[in-house]
Amino acid sequence: MHGNAMEWCSDYYGYYPETPVTDPKGPESGLYHVVRGGAYYSMARYCRSASRSFQSETYQGRSFGFRLAASPFSIQKIPLYAGWNLISFGINKCFYVGTKPNAPMIDNISYVKVDHIMDILHSIDGAYKYIRAYDCTGAKSYEYGSLWSDMTYMAAGYGYWIYIKEDANFENGLIYLELEGEMASVDKIIQLRSNQWALMGVLGNTAFCQDNVPDYVDFPSDTKIDFVSSMADVFQSINDQYILVKGKYKNGSYVFTPDDIQHSDLKCISPGFGYIVKINQDQNPTVNFVWKKP
Description:
InterPro entries: CTDL_fold, Sulfatase_Mod_Factor_Kinase, SUMF_dom, SUMF_sf. With 294 residues, the protein is mainly β. The protein is built from two helices and 21 strands. The two termini are 36 Å apart.
């Protein structure tokens, strides 16, 4: 952008000559100048670095404006079925009620204050009954419509239990939780506490599958698939620091145990789902987890 106010250029509006011209004057044909600048104007084509307008050089009006450089954002659609779902979201936000939560968060997360937990889940309003959460301070819960709740936030990097009612407005057996914003980077550190259980969320938009793509996993929109030889590859950042990983899909629960890979039946980790992880006793109070990069 050349400036934040509309200004005249040396160039005139008119046909360009066939012969070469010399800057800075440029071609001197026509009656109208070219204008430039990030002007606020009713027509978008005039709000550019430069535009060839029909305004005379004697025009006395002034237009001022600005431009915005925004990060790309996504709408993550998380499929939910009737009953209990173990979910997470990858939008780089922490939605909270009241004061900011004093809990570990991924770096550079965006805090968004809301009036009520219901505001976060407005896309499925009336379709859910309970939400369960767990962080370093213990278990939290929220019941739909309740005026009181000890659950005060939902954030990327965490997993959540949510109960969808049987009479929800399903489409092919599913409804969709929709959250909008910039996706959190997959290389963000998720802090887990030593010798404790964790409800962990998936970052990024890549699902990790072993052997094949299971038909019992309903992937969120725009999910990419990366095949791995073992679920141990996905959890390599905490190798030897965890005991098991548990996930839940529409047809049941699945477990991966690093000490018994042969008999483990959890063979897919996907965005939109949450996972229960049991961390070993460690000399450090916390363990840093990073999702495998595709």
